[in-house]
Write a structure and sequence with these properties.
Number of domains: 2
Number of helices: 5
Oligomer: single chain
Shape: rod-shaped
Order of helices and strands: HHHEEHEEH
CATH architecture of the largest domain: Orthogonal Bundle
Mean pLDDT: 87
Strand order of the largest sheet: 2-1-4-3
Structural class: mainly alpha
Number of strands: 4
Largest sheet: 4 strands, mixed
Distance between the termini: 10 Å
């Protein structure tokens, strides 16, 4: 049995140690909330960046497609103008035939007209093909523009929703940060630095319970001697395997061991 004074002293530092553990677990809970909300914020920002990047890419593709269509249309107009000019030339030569009396000149002019008709026929085929390509290109352009307009409309609505979510998350992060400052102010700087190092390296779990002699962080057995230190020491004890801060739940059985 311990002398009365020792029991009082023992109970005092046990209470202080228990309070430090409670503060650390509270800090851990707040930090997890901050981490989760920060991750959620990152996911939303990434979605904004990704979607707007995809829309920008589609806009660039449409501009390129529009340029290709405009070039085809320019060629079509050129072919039409050339065909009209050649048609006028053919008509003029036919009119000349009515005024020519010399058979050789007439035959030569007829051959020239036949060559022009053949050339014009080829021009017509090229023009028809170009018109078909231009029409198909324009139809595809309209389809892509309609698709882009639909995506932009959907994104306008979705983006407003995401910005609303971001506003809520940022407000919650601000509240959590204020709570963290209040909680962290109760601990000394060296302990906070060590806690933060463990928290960052161990996936957001720096303070863990020992249950049935097993660290609930790494699930390794805790040596019996170290268990006694957790029960009796006035200092924080760290897991020899994962280096997390260990604590035992305050139960009736624990009190009996004291």
């Amino acid at each position: 049995m311990h002398p009365p004074g020792c029991i009082s002293f023992f109970g005092d530092w046990r209470q202080k140690l228990r309070e430090r553990i409670e503060i650390l677990t509270t800090l851990q809970s707040v930090d997890r909330e901050i981490r989760n909300k920060s991750n959620a914020k990152t996911v939303l920002l990434d979605e904004i960046q990704k979607t707007e990047g995809e829309i920008q890419t589609k806009r660039a593709e449409i501009e390129l497609f529009r340029g290709n269509w405009a070039e085809k249309d320019r060629l079509r107009q050129g072919k039409e103008k050339l065909l009209q000019e050649e048609g006028r030339k053919t008509t003029d030569k036919r009119m000349r035939m009515t005024r020519i009396k010399n058979i050789k000149e007439l035959q030569a002019l007829q051959r020239e007209i036949d060559q022009m008709k053949q050339s014009n026929s080829q021009l017509e085929e090229e023009l028809i093909k170009l018109m078909e390509e231009t029409e198909m290109s324009f139809a595809s352009l309209q389809e892509k523009e309609q698709e882009l307009a639909r995506l932009e409309q959907e994104w306008t609505e979705k983006r407003a929703e995401i910005h609303s979510q971001l506003t809520g998350i940022e407000g919650e992060l601000a509240e959590a940060a204020a709570t963290r400052r209040q909680v962290a102010a109760k601990l000394d700087e060296n302990l906070i630095e060590r806690y933060e190092l463990i928290f960052s390296r161990r996936g957001g779990t720096a303070v863990v319970e020992v249950s049935e002699g097993i660290c609930q962080g790494c699930h390794m057995n805790i040596p019996y001697q170290l268990l006694n230190e957790i029960l009796k020491s006035d200092k924080l004890i760290f897991c020899p395997s994962c280096h997390r801060i260990l604590y035992l739940p305050e139960t009736a059985s624990t009190e009996k061991q004291l």
